[in-house]
Structures are given as structure tokens and as C-alpha cells.
Write a structure and sequence with these properties.
FAD-bd_oxidored_4_C; Vanillyl-alcohol Oxidase, Chain A, domain 3
Length: 929
């Protein structure tokens, strides 16, 4: 290993070679129920770097596995060799003429591609459930499909070209004539072999017929043998073999797909049937209708979500054999949508349903219907016993066998004791997912799982000649069963393909083809109980794109993986080694605690809560005493902070912002605001309203000396709109406790919050049993106070400033819009509270041009994290620079510390949206860049 690592160190930057035990463990985890810890993790950012890695691997005999997002479910993205993480250097995107095609790098998230295509009314064909997280590399490598994709629009069927690096280090770009010509010379023998295999396969009527039959339904078991019968040109054969090859044949450096139409008009229907058989009769009829998706749910799946708020009450009255179909119809126009919906309903005439079939077009109802489907998998994961894992398998049957096969599968699961299992799937393709929980901690449970998988194979393959893997990839999970499904002749072709393209078996060995018939029972992931906050985590990775520290240190999934291992070692009496020391910084110090992970988590886990819990446990007695003192003397803290800020401004005036930033370890920021001052009280007529200026806006003043402070701006706006703002008593000594809560000092933070709530209740009391509205000007503080007030019996209503401005100020103010452009940053609290629509509407009322940078979520400032761990702020905002045009010289947000970090990182002046609203509502409007 040392010689190999030394060679790589001469070829790649040191920061891209990850050797520490914590990150090798954490980065090596994917969404499957397998665990292998890589000996080395390498982040590759360019084709030359991939070629360098492959060259060193060949020379030293090291196996390499490429990883995109790690959402794969079958164990195809774990290794005990070298794990190559595909870096952001591979995140390019080029939209073709008329957006009928798109060229993408493998590191680009699928949903980001669709967001770029949306203005053209197009999208990529594959639509896996993980599209908000999974990346193009994984979508292509697994030939992922989804609810609407079917077999017609997956990566294989929509492939227009690709650029691939083979195990020998060679490159082929199928869209570049020169590259193709050179490859035909350099790899003539390889192409001749592929051409001969194709001719022989097409000439074998029985084999060719079997391959065609296998791909009439969804099938990702083994290699894409349909390439041998669909194409004669060996370049085309090679390109299509790469799709679904799970990184075992080469590295896909870029991919061009033909896009499909994204119809703007949609309608959904949730239909309930007395039995699976009747539901499947309906599916057979629907196959010939213009439906976009038909999802089947068995009674157990419906039962798992039937008590969730907002779902149809009839779900709780269904019989034991009932089933449901969720149907979606799409069209370019409302008239066409109505015609298509009518055609679907006509096809169902005579089919027995529990309620009369009807389509809904309003988004709220359609979203409610899809919550039924999307909530089933998480419900099983959330209810499972601690220490168990949740497994989702996917199989496919010929459509004509779907009803019988579903009943057989239900019976099989019951027979093997999986009473909690649910079944749902993409009915039009005969594709069923079944979800169950499994304990791998003992021999008895392992034996039960082994017998289940044998029974599943017998049912799917022997009885129905279906697919053991429909869309999740073969991986390690079904590698031992490939020959059983395909037969010896077809499997021999797959071995020839592997040997031809990867003769040293360096690329992801053990995946797709594995001679070990027990491979699916080895390297099973431990899921020890660690904390009740996180025990429900299924390690899917859906959280990762939302985390500001992902790629810098750890993501939420990786924090949970790490803490589970530390907890396991502690319970077993094993030393923590380097893991505990590394976790202090990578796991705790660099967690922003923003909670955005919970918005994507299928089971709603906020990993920030774990961070706060652990910070509190590890807090020293001195730190706790300091926290208690802060809670009791916050007015003094505010005064000292203002003095320190003034001193900093004086020092920066002498030596400059840059040197001062270096002297303070990054705590001092370029463009640091002036020291704040206590807001003044207002007297006058108007509708009473209570204004609580958050401490950040009181400590940190305006960005420039000529500007008013945030509390002054908000107060002026309230008066201008006809309100009489009143400040809570001793407000300058009050704080909601957010800063202490983020450090895990819950008791001191709670005391501070109680004091604020008491002051707000007193100030807002209208004397008639009610309360005046209360406004806070920092979204993080508003969210905390809203959560606390929601648990009290009072009807006091607290608004974040932008919410009150949208609801109450806009109707009273005369607005003159600015030309813009204005940059918008929607901070974490606004996203979690789902009040971003009001923020956008407020900004739209003030500016004619809005820039909302894509790929920018949490700014990483995390209250005071931006001062203590400035690299987190820089990393979180690394994508904002390219997204802001040169003529965009200012930005708005709703959290003072976020605005400080944004100002420092972008060089633009970010302020509260209150400033922009105040400028746009002045009688004499004066604006400048």
C-alpha cells in the first residue's frame, strides 16, 4: 500500500488522497446493506486524474470502485480496495440544440439536470426515486429507471453518446469522429471480438429471442446483453454495454442523453380496489392508454401510511385484500389532459372500485395522493426495531402474471415471517418493490434471510421467468444468481465481456459476476443502536446534497455512520482509536446544525440534533458555567461584543481586513459590519405591533457607516405602513438562546428563551385576552421562537419579518421596483419553515430581476460557525461565485450572520430584505449599485 500511495501522491494533490480511518469508514458507506471499508479513498476531478489512478492500479494490482452519490441499494458502490469518489470537476452540463439532448458529467445530480432543462419543457428520461440525490454516473451505471421512465426512456434507450475511460487507460468518445477512428486502430482486436459476439448472438435464434423477451420488462440483472442484438456497430455495442455495467467495465466520464418532453399539465387519481387481482386487471387495461405512471400498492403498504395527516379517510376502512393504483396523466395543454384523463377512465369501465374513479388536477390534492406512494418506504424504515436494517428489493414479472405473482410474493413473505413487509411498484412494467426489515446480528436471522432469497429466486425465475433486479442493479446482492436467471450460455457471454474489457479484474470485482455463491450473505452492514435520534437512519444518503459540510468533512449520513461505529466500539469495550479524535472536528465542529438534512430525509432525521446532543455531552464544566453566565448577563455580552467589533474595525482600518483575518484565524471577515447600537423606541399612532430585534442585528450594525441599522430600518418600515411598533421590556438584554442551543447547552438556552417568551407575552398583551402580532428580524431566531410558542396554550402569533412584510406591509406600501439584478439567498430556517414562497414574492415586488444561485443551500455560517470554522462557510458557498453575474452587486437574505458570510465570500453587500423594501417604498426613491 505504501508504494502505491507514494506513486499516487506524485500524481494527485494530497487533499484528494484520503487515508484516515474515520473518513475511509464514513465515505465507504452506501445505501445498501453491505459494508466494506476501503483501504484508500481517492477523489478524482478530471480524466487525467482517472487515467493516473487506473495506471497506478494496474501497476500495483489494486482494485478500483467508482462512486457517484452512493445511493445504490445492491452493494455495487462499496469496496475494500480503492474507492474513487467522482468530484465536482465532473459536474459539467451542456444543453444541446432545442434541448433535445444534454451532455452531462457523472458528478451532476439528476434533479439539477432537469432543473436546467425545465425552461425548455424537457427532462432526462430516467426518473429514479432518488433523483434529487443520485448522480448521472450512477443513473447510467445502473441503468436506473423510475415511475414514469418505464423501459422506453431509460439511459440505454435514450443514449446519444458517451465518453468512457477503459481499464487500460484508453479513452473513447463516441461523439468525436477522430476519437472513434483512433480507437478503431488501437483497439481493433477488442472491437472485432465484440462484433463477432454480436453476430453470433443474433444468429442464435433461441438466445436472441430470450434476450429480447428479458428486456420487454425491466431488467438490470447482469450486463446489457441487448446491446449484442440491438446494434451491429461494435462502437455502439461497447457504448451500450457500459450502461448498467455498474463500473465494472470502465469509467463513464460524460454522457449524452436524448431528452423527453416534460408536459406542464398533470392529473392524478388514487383508486382503491377490493383486491390485488382486480387492481391488476385495471393495470392490463391501462397499458394501452396514455398514462404517464401507474403505481400499485398492496394493503400493507397502504396500512403503513393510512393515519398520516391529510390522506383519504377511506384508506382506514379498506378490507384486508384491498389494493390501490396511483395513476398520473400528463399533457401539453389542459384540453389534451382532459381528453387523456377521459380515455383512462373509459378504459376502467366495468372494473370494480371502492370509490368512483376521478382525476384531480389541483397540485395540493395530487401531492396528497403521491404522499401515499412516497411515504410507504420511509414508514417501514421509521418503525423498524433498533439494530435492524431496512431492505428494499425490486423484481419484475411479465405483466400478464402480475396479479398472481403479487399474491405469491405476499404469501412468500408471510411464510418466512416478514409480517411487516409491504409491496408497491411500477405496475405498467410489472415491477414490484418489496420492503422488509432484517436483523443480521445472529445466525438464525441470517439463515432466515438466505432462505427468503432462495424462495424469491424460485418464484421470480423458476415460476414466472421474471427479473431478479428490475432497476436497482445487480450489485453484490444478486451476483450469485445471475446464471440462474439468465442460464449458462448468456452468463458465459457476460464473462467474456468482462474478460475482454477488464482482463485484470481491477474494476469493481465481485459486482455483477461473482463465483462465490454466498457473496450476498457476506460483508453485511452492522446497524448498532447508537442514539434514539438517529437509530431510524437507513443510510440512504438523500441528505447529502443539502449539507454544507458534505465534501469538506462529513455529511449527515457519514456523521451517523461514524457515531454508530464509535457507539459500537464503546459498547463492545473496544478502543475508539483515531476515530474519536477525528470525529470531534469532522463530525461536530464542522456541522452547521442547519437541519436541512431533515427536509430530504425519508424518516425526518435532523442530524443537527445529534450534533447538539453530543456537543452538550462533551461540553466542559467551564463551558457550561460560561453558558449559564451568558444567559444571566446577556446585556453585558452584547455590550462587550459591540466593543470588540468597534476595536476590530479600528484594527482593520490600520492593517486591513486581510491581515486581520489571518491574525484571527478567519474570524474577522472582509466587509465586516459596524458595531450595532440599541434600537430607539417609537411613539405614535398606528396599529400596535411588537418588534423583537434579534441579538445579531443589535450586535452587528449596518454594512456601511452611511446605512441605518437593521432595527432602525424595520421600525421605519412599520411606522411607514401605519403600525405602532413597541419593543419588549429590556429587549437589549434578551436572546432566544439559539447560539447556546447550537453548542448543546440546552438548559441555558431554554432559560434564555423563557425570558424572551415572557417579555413577548407581556409586550403583546392587548388587554382583551388576545395578543398583538410579534415580529422578529432573524429567521433562525424566528423559527426557534415559533417552535416554542407552538407548544404554549396562548394564541400569540410570531412572524419572521419577511412573512409579516409579505402579508401586512406590501398591501400598505407604495412600491417602486428596482431594475436589479438582486441576489437572493434563502437561508436554512426559511427553507425548513417552508416560507420561501413568501420571500420570493416579496423580493419580486421590489426587484425586476432576481438571481437565485443554483447549487447553493445553507451558507455554512451556522450562527457562529462561520467565525470559529471559516472553512465551512467558504466550502458551502463555493458554487455561488460562478452563479452571480458581474452586474449583480448586492444581495438579500433574512439572517444577519448569513449575510455577513455571504458578503465576505462574494464581495457583494448582502443585507436583510428589509433594506430593499425600505428603499423601494420611499417617497423619493434613490438607488445605486
Amino acid at each position: 500500500m505504501n508504494t502505491f500511495l507514494q506513486d499516487l501522491a506524485r500524481l494527485l494533490p494530497a487533499e484528494q488522497l484520503i487515508t484516515d480511518p474515520l473518513r475511509r469508514l464514513a465515505y465507504g458507506t452506501d445505501a445498501s446493506f453491505y459494508r466494506l471499508t476501503p483501504e484508500l479513498v481517492v477523489r478524482v476531478e478530471s480524466e487525467p486524474q482517472v487515467q493516473a489512478l487506473l495506471r497506478a492500479s494496474r501497476e500495483h494490482g489494486r482494485k478500483v470502485t467508482f462512486r457517484a452519490a452512493g445511493t445504490s441499494l445492491s452493494g455495487q458502490a462499496v469496496t475494500d480496495g480503492v474507492l474513487a469518489l467522482i468530484g465536482e470537476g465532473f459536474a459539467g452540463c451542456e444543453i444541446g440544440a432545442d434541448a433535445t439532448s444534454v451532455k452531462m458529467g457523472p458528478a451532476l445530480i439528476g434533479a439539477e439536470v432537469n432543473a436546467r432543462l425545465a425552461p425548455y419543457g424537457r427532462k432526462i428520461g430516467p426518473d429514479p426515486a432518488s433523483i434529487n440525490t443520485c448522480k448521472i454516473g450512477g443513473i447510467a451505471a445502473n441503468n436506473a429507471s423510475g415511475m414514469c421512465c418505464g423501459t422506453a426512456h431509460n439511459s440505454y434507450q435514450t443514449l446519444a453518446g458517451l465518453r468512457v475511460l477503459l481499464a487500460d487507460g484508453s479513452r473513447l468518445d463516441t461523439e468525436d469522429a477522430a476519437s472513434v477512428a483512433a480507437f478503431r486502430v488501437s483497439h481493433a482486436a477488442l472491437l472485432a471480438e465484440l462484433a463477432q459476439m454480436g453476430r453470433a448472438t443474433r444468429a442464435d435464434d433461441a438466445l436472441a429471442a430470450r434476450i429480447r423477451r428479458k428486456y420487454k420488462i425491466k431488467n438490470t440483472t447482469g450486463y446489457s446483453l441487448n446491446a449484442l442484438i440491438d446494434f451491429e456497430n461494435p462502437i455502439d455495442i461497447l457504448a451500450h454495454l457500459m450502461i448498467g455495467s455498474e463500473g465494472t467495465l470502465g469509467f463513464i466520464a460524460s454522457l449524452t442523453l436524448s431528452t423527453v418532453v416534460e408536459d406542464p399539465c398533470k392529473a392524478s387519481a388514487l383508486l382503491f380496489f377490493p383486491s390485488i387481482e382486480i387492481a391488476c386487471q385495471a393495470v392490463t387495461r391501462l397499458k394501452a392508454t396514455p398514462v404517464a405512471a401507474v403505481e400499485l400498492l398492496d394493503r400493507a403498504a397502504l396500512r403503513s401510511v393510512e393515519y398520516k395527516p391529510g390522506l383519504p379517510a377511506v384508506m382506514r376502512t379498506l378490507g384486508a385484500d384491498a389494493a390501490a393504483l396511483l395513476i398520473e396523466v400528463r399533457a401539453e395543454t389542459a384540453v389534451a389532459l382532459q381528453l387523456r384523463s377521459g380515455a383512462v377512465l373509459a378504459a376502467l369501465t366495468g372494473i370494480e372500485t371502492i370509490e368512483a374513479p376521478a382525476f384531480a388536477t389541483d397540485p395540493a390534492t395530487c401531492e396528497m395522493y403521491w404522499k401515499v406512494r412516497k411515504g410507504t418506504f420511509p414508514s417501514v424504515g421509521a418503525m423498524r426495531r433498533a439494530g435492524t436494517t431496512v431492505i428494499i428489493e425490486d423484481v419484475a414479472f411479465p405483466l400478464e402474471s402480475l396479479a398472481a405473482a403479487t399474491l405469491d410474493l405476499q404469501a412468500l413473505l408471510q411464510r418466512h415471517g416478514y409480517d411487516e413487509a409491504i409491496i408497491f411498484g411500477h405496475a405498467l412494467e410489472g415491477n414490484l418493490h418489496f420492503v422488509f426489515t432484517q436483523d443480521f446480528s445472529g445466525a438464525v436471522e441470517l439463515d432466515r434471510y438466505e432462505k427468503l432469497m432462495e424462495a424469491v429466486c424460485a418464484l421470480v425465475v423458476d415460476k414466472y421467468d421474471g427479473s431478479l433486479k428490475a432497476e436497482h442493479g445487480t450489485g453484490r446482492n444478486m451476483a450469485p444468481f445471475v446464471e440462474r436467471e439468465w442460464g449458462a450460455q448468456a452468463t458465459a457471454l457476460m464473462h467474456r465481456i468482462k474478460q475482454l474489457l477488464d482482463p485484470q479484474h481491477l474494476l469493481n470485482p465481485g459486482v455483477i459476476l461473482n463465483p462465490d455463491q454466498q457473496a450476498h450473505l457476506q460483508h453485511l452492514k452492522p446497524m448498532p443502536s447508537a442514539e434514539s435520534l438517529i437509530d431510524r437512519c437507513i443510510e440512504c444518503g438523500f441528505c447529502e446534497p443539502h449539507c454544507p459540510s458534505h465534501g469538506l468533512t462529513l455529511s449527515p449520513r457519514q456523521r451517523i455512520v461514524s457515531w454508530r461505529e464509535l457507539s459500537r466500539r464503546a459498547a463492545a469495550g473496544e478502543p475508539s482509536g483515531e476515530l474519536e479524535t477525528a470525529f470531534a472536528y469532522q463530525g461536530l465542529d464542522t456541522c452547521a446544525g442547519c437541519g436541512l438534512c431533515s427536509t430530504a430525509c425519508p424518516v425526518g432525521i435532523d442530524t443537527g440534533e445529534l450534533t447538539r446532543l453530543l456537543r452538550g455531552r462533551q461540553s466542559s464544566p467551564v463551558a457550561r458555567r460560561l453558558g449559564a453566565w451568558t444567559a444571566d448577563h446577556f446585556g453585558s455580552v452584547v455590550g462587550v461584543a459591540r466593543l470588540a467589533l468597534s476595536a476590530g474595525q479600528m484594527a482593520a482600518g490600520v492593517i486591513g481586513d486581510g491581515p486581520l483575518a489571518r491574525l484571527t484565524g478567519g474570524a474577522w471577515k472582509a466587509g465586516m459590519p459596524r458595531a450595532g447600537k440599541p434600537p430607539r423606541s417609537y411613539r405614535g399612532a398606528g396599529d400596535p405591533v411588537v418588534y423583537f430585534p434579534a441579538c445579531a442585528g443589535r450586535i452587528f450594525g449596518a454594512n456601511h457607516s452611511a446605512e441605518a441599522s437593521l432595527p432602525e430600518v424595520v421600525s421605519d418600515l412599520l411606522v411607514r405602513a401605519g403600525y405602532a411598533p413597541r419593543l419588549p421590556k429590556d429587549f437589549d438584554k434578551l436572546c432566544c438562546g439559539q447560539s447556546l442551543a447550537s453548542k448543546g447547552q440546552a438548559e441555558a438556552a431554554g432559560a434564555m428563551a423563557e425570558a424572551v417568551v415572557a417579555a413577548l407575552l407581556a409586550a403583546a398583551d392587548d388587554g382583551q385576552g388576545g395578543y398583538y402580532p410579534v415580529i422578529s428580524d432573524a429567521s433562525a431566531c424566528s423559527a426557534r421562537l415559533q417552535q416554542i410558542l407552538a407548544g404554549l396554550p396562548s394564541n400569540l402569533r410570531l412572524y419572521d419579518f419577511h412573512e409579516f412584510a409579505h402579508d401586512a406591509l406590501l398591501p400598505r406600501l407604495r412600491i417602486t421596483r428596482q431594475a436589479g439584478p438582486i441576489a437572493l439567498h434563502i437561508n436554512c430556517s426559511v427553507r425548513r419553515q417552508e416560507s420561501d414562497a413568501k420571500l420570493r414574492a416579496l423580493l419580486n415586488a421590489c426587484s425586476e430581476q432576481i438571481i437565485e444561485p443554483t447549487g447553493v443551500g445553507c451558507c455554512g455560517f451556522g450562527g457562529d460557525r462561520g467565525f470559529a470554522v471559516p472553512e465551512l462557510n467558504r466550502h458551502a458557498l463555493r458554487k455561488v461565485h460562478a452563479a452571480l453575474p458581474s452586474n449583480c452587486c448586492s444581495g438579500v437574505s433574512t439572517n444577519r450572520t448569513c449575510e455577513i458570510g455571504l458578503t465576505a465570500e462574494t464581495g457583494r453587500s448582502y443585507r436583510s430584505i428589509a433594506y430593499l423594501l425600505e428603499e423601494c417604498s420611499r417617497e423619493s426613491l434613490q438607488t445605486s449599485c
